[in-house]
């Protein structure tokens, strides 16, 4: 971390001390136009961050921080195809996948756009053929179910988006997602499916991920057993960067779709990894999804820092995590179809920012990523919101809500919106001891009873939240939302000087699992080399196993 960044953080820390005693409510009282100043619109999305504890000076200091962190130059380096993922020596160019204008984007001096467009065309032709019934299974039946087999970025993005865009999905064509190596996931997914009408898409950047390859092998056996070995090629497609491994699996070239090492797994939904989604919603809607992201990319590239939505999101993220010390961040979509959005953001944010060293390999002197979590409202209100309101930790929240639903009738949606707005209001306003006491007295309690109960009904308030209000959850809006969070993460990583695009932290567990598998399976009996706890668990397992 440079001295300039350290100094900018120090300035923010001293500023925080100067505003700490001022409540959010007081900030609103002092400035009637606070909402106008601290909200911004980008197309169909309005972001209101007036309920975060920022002032004009905070924003000024945060943009100083962005400049100290060389944010704009780092952003431009990404768009220029430089190898900014240094520990893997790779460019980071998922933005090329939604560059629908086709303007050249270079990696090592070569324009990647022709290959990107050609692969997208191939996916669209495949999706159209399948949707129209021109592409059929080995027995001549139309496909009725697509099963995507993948994990992490090869699952979360398309699974999240397929659920989010359910109203745009083709009727009579189901899309399912299998990720977990737990055989229950595959078994439950295959239940009721007709092998003759099922197409599997094996999605794996590396085509070596043990969960995906294990599930793929099980699915292959399921097809071969029902329809015979020659049918396999008709019932499998694959998306990967490892075409040799795809061929070895027995998938023909016409059902093989590629992407490139400059697309990180958690940023890959825009590539052929989105094939299952494209089949579900059709190539045109998929194009709209890309167009939404492209719109955000253009904005991120060109808007001034103070009017740049993902930049503000990232800077507020740093303000909360690094200056206020809030260690977790809740994403609360008031949109049932965004149920998997927090899970997608979990990988995006936590795999990207979960780092302890800088790009140069030195310890990061500050906290990096927060814990990201969340569930749709209003369900969460009846589960974990208690802690958000009265717990001892402050958890900044993002609320997401559509102005209009896809369903007819406004009764449900009016209630949904009212709840969403009420929650951010309650987090901000809180309730004082005097108010809680008066409330109890109004209900007829004695002064003693009221005094005993009131502390339990106090809300500290001053709890920050940001609200994203969008017209409707359509493909373009979803594309925008995902891209906004992608760039938010970029901003945080750029300022902290860490690599947002590697994920070495997943390696050790994978290696140890590979070593343990023969011990668990009983092919290796000796357990004396294991640590005491693991050895004890293996010994107990051996006794307990049926
Ligand atoms: O969990 C690590 C990881 O490499 C993710 O980054 C990635 O999205 C996932 O595994 C799946 O990898 P692959 O697409 O190569 O199967």
UniProtKB/TrEMBL annotation:
Entry keyword Nucleus:
no
Q: Which GO terms describe its cellular component?
A: cytosol
Q: Which reaction(s) does its UniProt entry say it catalyses? A: alpha-D-glucose 6-phosphate = beta-D-fructose 6-phosphate
Keywords assigned by UniProt, alphabetized = Cytoplasm, Gluconeogenesis, Glycolysis, Isomerase
Where does this protein act, in terms of pathway?
Carbohydrate degradation; glycolysis; D-glyceraldehyde 3-phosphate and glycerone phosphate from D-glucose: step 2/4; Carbohydrate biosynthesis; gluconeogenesis
E.C. number: 5.3.1.9
Q: Where in the cell is the protein located? A: Cytoplasm
Output one GO BP term.
glycolytic process
Cytoplasm listed as a keyword: yes
The record's principal subcellular location, in a coarse class, is: cytoplasm
The top EC class is isomerase
- Active site residues according to the UniProt entry: 351, 382, 510
Named from the GO MF annotations, one term is:
carbohydrate derivative binding
Which HAMAP family does the annotation name? Answer: G6P_isomerase (MF_00473)
Q: What does this protein do?
A: Catalyzes the reversible isomerization of glucose-6-phosphate to fructose-6-phosphate.
Q: State the family it belongs to.
A: Belongs to the GPI family.
- Its recorded name reads Glucose-6-phosphate isomerase
Q: Which gene encodes it?
A: pgi
């Amino acid at each position: 971390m440079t001295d300039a960044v350290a100094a900018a953080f120090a300035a923010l820390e001293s500023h925080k001390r100067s505003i700490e005693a001022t409540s959010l409510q007081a900030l609103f009282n002092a400035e009637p136009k606070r909402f106008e100043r601290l909200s911004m619109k980008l197309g169909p999305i309005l972001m209101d961050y007036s309920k975060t504890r920022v002032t004009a000076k905070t924003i000024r200091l945060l943009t100083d921080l962005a400049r100290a962190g060389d944010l704009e130059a780092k952003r431009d380096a990404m768009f220029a195809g430089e190898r900014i993922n240094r520990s893997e020596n790779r460019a980071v160019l998922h933005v090329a996948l939604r560059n629908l204008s086709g303007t050249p984007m270079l990696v090592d001096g070569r324009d990647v756009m022709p290959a990107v467009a050609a692969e997208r065309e191939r996916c669209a032709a495949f999706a159209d053929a399948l949707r129209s019934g021109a592409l059929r299974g080995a027995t001549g039946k139309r496909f009725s179910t697509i099963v995507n087999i993948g994990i992490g970025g090869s699952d979360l993005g398309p699974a999240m988006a397929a659920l989010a865009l359910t109203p745009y999905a083709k009727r009579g064509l189901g899309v399912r997602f299998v990720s977990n190596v737990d055989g229950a996931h595959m078994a439950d997914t295959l239940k009721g499916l007709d092998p003759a009408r099922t197409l599997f898409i094996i999605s794996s950047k590396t085509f070596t991920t043990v969960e995906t390859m294990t599930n793929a092998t099980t699915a292959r056996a399921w097809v071969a057993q029902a329809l015979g070995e020659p049918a396999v090629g008709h019932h499998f497609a694959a998306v990967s960067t490892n075409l040799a491994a795809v061929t070895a699996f027995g998938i023909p070239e016409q059902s093989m779709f590629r992407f490139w090492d400059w697309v990180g797994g958690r940023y890959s939904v825009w590539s052929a990894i989105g094939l299952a989604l494209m089949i579900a919603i059709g190539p045109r809607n998929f194009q709209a999804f890309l167009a939404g992201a492209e719109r955000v990319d253009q904005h991120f590239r060109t808007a001034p820092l103070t009017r740049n939505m993902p930049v503000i999101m990232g800077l507020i993220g740093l303000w909360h995590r690094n200056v206020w010390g809030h260690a977790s961040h809740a994403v609360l979509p008031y949109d049932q179809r965004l149920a998997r959005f927090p899970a997608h953001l979990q990988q995006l944010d936590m795999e990207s920012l979960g780092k302890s060293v800088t790009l140069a390999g030195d310890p990061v002197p500050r906290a990096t990523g927060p814990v990201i979590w969340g569930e749709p409202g209003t369900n969460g209100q009846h589960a974990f919101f208690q802690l958000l309101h009265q717990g001892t930790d402050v958890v900044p929240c993002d609320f997401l809500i559509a102005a209009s639903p896809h369903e007819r009738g406004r009764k449900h949606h009016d209630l949904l919106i009212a709840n969403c707005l009420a929650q951010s209001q309650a987090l901000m306003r809180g309730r004082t001891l005097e108010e809680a006491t008066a409330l109890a007295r109004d209900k007829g309690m004695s002064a003693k009873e009221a005094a005993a109960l009131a502390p339990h009904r106090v809300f500290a308030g001053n709890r920050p939240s940001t609200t994203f209000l969008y017209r409707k959850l359509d493909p373009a809006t979803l594309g925008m939302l995902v891209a906004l969070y992608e760039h938010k993460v970029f901003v945080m990583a750029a300022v902290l000087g860490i690599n947002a695009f590697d994920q070495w932290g997943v390696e050790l567990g994978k290696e140890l699992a590979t070593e343990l598998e023969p011990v668990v399976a009983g092919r290796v009996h000796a357990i004396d080399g294991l640590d005491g706890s693991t050895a004890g668990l293996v010994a107990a397992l051996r006794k307990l196993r049926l």
